[in-house]
Specification:
Chains A, B: Keywords: Metal-binding, Oxidoreductase, Zinc. Two copies of one chain form a homodimer. Chain A has 349 residues and is α/β, with parallel strands linked by helices. The first copy, chain A, contains twelve helices and 16 strands. In chain A, the strands form three sheets. In chain A, strands 3, 5, 6, 7, 8, 15 and 16 form a seven-stranded mixed beta sheet that branches. Chain A has a six-stranded parallel beta sheet with strand order 11-10-9-12-13-14, with helices on both faces. At the A-B interface, strand 13, helix 10 and strand 14 of A face strand 13, helix 10 and strand 14 of B.
């Protein structure tokens, strides 16, 4: 089969690799219908994290089940499934606590730790999904082609944006600022509106993304950063800052922007993977009672909750895909996202 | 009048100072009935924070109103009042948001910023309380002498322990670990129990404090620290850590202990002032979805909520006072707390 392999920074190739085979009894083979490139895939692409040896890449996909192991009970051949961006059993204590990203038996696509063989990551034609009963979410009924982008966002970005909002405690009437206008930030706007926020400030400098942000529910756009950006948010929110701020980037600058844009007693929900490990400055948090909550988004638990709204069209996160390419052009997909020519690229095998 | 003055590290003196006088119309003169020494008073006492020049010290007191300014409406001569450990108007947007420690017009006892003159801190015979209507909480009816210690805890430690629990989101059935067995940590145990926690782990190595912790509602004691302490908490909590951890110390070690003792998806409520400014390590928080919430406790807003339970005896935070001294022996009070011979010392003018 074909699959995407990263060889080095800016060296993405689609190559022939062995087809996956069932190995554990609890796994399934999924034929990928659509996959995508994640903002976090850009780190190795940009060389921010090193690539020591060529390896498969990708961790967001939807597809149709082609085979299941003997022990699989909840997933059947022919099912259309959404895979979260990680592997989990959805039954352990952490999963039950809503934190399936800390599953005691789970792990990451593209690895072979504890999974009975290599687990592909979705930027390819086939995937062996370990822990199929827990990880794969079945979409009931017939799936139309125009539903694919929206469903695919439930594998990561829509669930991640939702997690930012949930972690920050967004509720009816809240003022919310969103730092980051990538796919996750845009989905966080959808989530904030869905949860009842009345004021939603998109911090964005990109005209097209600003427009999408407004379509998704942003009531205000703030293009400024730093002190001026903080002041702009305060002016919109009664002089004190936003009740909830959703940090969807992961740099030290974006986190500082988020913390300083939050009102005393407010909460930052952060889902931007902290790349390079900045620490959180405790004094600006402590002195103003600003909380910080979030992390690697446990999207598996959100799929069933968000699915009805995606299918009904009540929310349209699929619009974050502004470029679609065939799988064999994966390198072009990475380049388009790297250069910010595309918010998010959908790949079709 | 007599008041406590710190001259240098370990040099506490009770001296004659001028009586305070009304100056703003919105202030009140309070005759102090009881005051106490705060854990944070030990920082300058120990020289951790420098004392550049002699200054008054103290910020927790209860007393009887002796005079009020023309504009004071809610507080009357003769009222028994509890003062929070800071000055606030209890009406600004931050106060209304429940974060009166960030009051737009407030500040700190022992300062003369924006208050129309010096505002004493309570370790003395008289206090001029600026913003009397907002800051002072009136205790209705007659106050008996044995109520004094409990009421005095509402000026800081009981409200601060409560804030740790509220910030961590403690609710019915939760498992809670409390890091720190000082007065605030002990009050946090009271708060956790009051909010319905079913498992309460006191991390304490001090036999007498362990006993008080059990009296207050601790179901388990963990004397260990570091990896062994984390493991002990995990063993009590199904292998994953406590749902909520209340950090009531403020050192890098105690914060690390708290973060690592929290289960994935759990929350640290922290009220130990971060002395020396350790930063929060973002990766252990992000990777495990452990949130951090809290700060300078806005106790003014908790006084009315906790007062009925203190007066009815449903909770007995006054028991944290294990030594009572006359004001003129303030130096001995500091020494007793510094040497951990006393949990908390009550001073009577």
């Amino acid at each position: 089969m074909l699959a995407t392999v990263i060889h080095a920074a800016r060296d993405i190739r689609v190559e022939n690799v062995p087809d996956p085979v069932l190995s554990t009894g609890g796994d399934a083979i999924v034929r990928v219908v659509a996959a995508c490139v994640c903002g976090s895939d850009l780190w190795p692409y940009r060389g921010v994290t090193p690539t020591h040896a060529p390896h498969r890449i990708g961790h967001e996909f939807v597809g149709v089940v082609e085979a299941v192991g003997d022990a699989v009970a909840k997933v059947a051949v022919g099912d259309f499934v959404i895979a979260p961006f990680y592997v989990c059993d959805n039954t352990c204590i952490n999963c039950r606590n809503g934190v399936s990203t800390s599953c005691l038996h789970g792990g990451w696509w593209g690895s072979d730790d504890r999974f009975g063989g290599f687990a592909d990551g979705g930027q390819g034609e086939l995937v062996r999904a370990p822990l199929a009963d827990g990880g794969l979410a079945v979409v009931p009924g017939a799936v139309t082609d125009d539903e694919i982008p929206g469903l695919l966002t439930l594998s990561d970005v829509m669930g991640t944006g939702h997690h930012a909002a949930v972690s920050a405690g967004v509720g009816p009437g809240d003022s919310v600022a969103v730092v980051g206008d990538g796919a996750v930030g845009l989905c966080a706007i959808i989530a904030a509106r869905r949860l009842g926020a009345s004021t939603i400030i998109a911090m964005s400098r990109h005209p097209q993304r600003q427009e999408l942000a407004r379509d998704f529910g942003a009531t205000h756009i703030v293009a400024e950063r730093g002190d001026i950006g903080v002041k702009a948010v305060q002016e919109i929110t009664g002089g004190v800052g936003a009740d909830r701020v959703l940090e969807c980037v992961g740099t030290k600058q974006s986190m500082d922007q988020a913390i300083r844009s939050t009102r005393p007693g407010g909460m930052v929900g952060y889902v931007g993977a902290p790349n390079g490990g900045p620490e959180l400055p405790v004094r600006p948090l402590f002195n103003r009672n600003v909380g910080v909550n979030g992390g690697v988004a446990p999207v598996r638990g959100y799929i069933e909750r968000l699915l009805p709204d995606v299918r009904s069209g009540a929310i349209a996160p699929g619009r974050v895909f502004d470029l679609e390419l065939p799988l064999r052009e994966a390198a072009a997909a990475y380049a388009a996202m790297d250069e910010r020519r595309a918010v998010k690229v959908l790949l079709r095998p």
